[in-house]
Design goal:
The protein is mainly α and about 270 residues long. It has one domain. The chain is about 60% helix and about 0% strand. It is built from ten helices and no strands.
Length: about 270
């Protein structure tokens, strides 16, 4: 428990540093220069940052550790492969392995968030964004933390990566999520076929059905979208409108968006 507390303290400190960094970068190198820093909905999204980046992450962390260890220990494969598959590897080998494995799992989960009506209801909160900047990375319903962390808990516990590697991956994931949603005009050139970036991810939030409404599911790595043909990225232009079709029923307030997915309704997939 002491180790978990140290991990959470370190991550929260890095979260503050990353947030300050992107506020500064967007002021100095804004892509959409007419977009104000204190744009419409910024106070609501600050609330999402506090809940999803701080409060709920801390609350759910002990459960995820316990769930992962119990679930991984009960898998038949653990009895012959042993626990801690990569625990004896060097730091870089552990990090790269965990990055690829975790990112692919999250790509799959993100895909399902768009294709399963129950999950899409919660994911709609994130896609209600109509103005994109770094803090939009945390504009999502807390149920997504439960889904992502529960699915990731088993492989994380099974592979047995060190706590230092897990912390660095969490920091890198937060940085890259903020980067993807940021108001920065960066496409990474040819590296864009490997790594996600703001210009590609903006099309994931396209409100139209151009290229299909379910596209660009990448978290850190964009390569999964090119491999599985879910990539859509016109390099010469940007989406005209962000959001999702028929989004008028989504409340604009923080309490409203937290409660909205929990209300009974029929919600078709996008």
């Amino acid at each position: 428990m002491a180790q978990l507390g140290a991990y959470l303290s370190s991550y929260l400190a890095w979260l503050v540093i990353i947030s300050v960094l992107f506020v500064s970068l967007e002021r100095a190198f804004a892509w959409r220069r007419d977009q104000p820093v204190l744009r419409r909905g910024w106070l609501r999204d600050l609330g999402f940052l506090a809940i999803n980046g701080h409060v709920f992450s801390v609350v759910v962390a002990p459960f995820n550790v316990w769930f992962g260890k119990v679930a991984a220990g009960s898998l038949p494969i653990a009895r012959w492969a042993g626990e801690g598959v990569i625990s004896q590897w060097g730091f870089l080998a552990q990090f790269l392995t965990l990055l690829v494995v975790a990112d692919f799992i999250q790509w799959c989960v993100h895909n399902l968030l768009h294709r399963i009506p129950f999950l899409w209801t919660f994911h709609k909160v994130h896609h209600s964004l109509t103005i994109m900047d770094w803090i939009g990375n945390f504009h999502f319903h807390w149920m997504e933390i439960v889904v992502y962390r529960s699915v990731l808990a088993i492989p994380l516990a099974y592979v047995g990566a060190s706590s230092e590697v897990i912390l660095v991956l969490a920091v890198v994931s937060t940085f890259w999520g903020d980067f993807n949603h940021s108001n920065l005009n960066v496409s990474l050139g040819r590296l864009g076929y490997l790594l996600n970036n703001p210009r590609m991810h903006l099309w994931h939030h396209d409100q139209s059905s151009e290229g299909g409404v379910a596209k660009n599911f990448g978290i850190i790595l964009s390569v999964w979208d090119f491999v599985f043909r879910t990539a859509y990225w016109p390099r010469d232009r940007n989406p005209e409108h962000l959001g999702y079709p028929m989004m008028d029923d989504m409340p604009s307030s923080l309490p409203g968006q937290l409660l909205w997915p929990l209300l009974p309704r029929r919600t078709p997939t996008p």
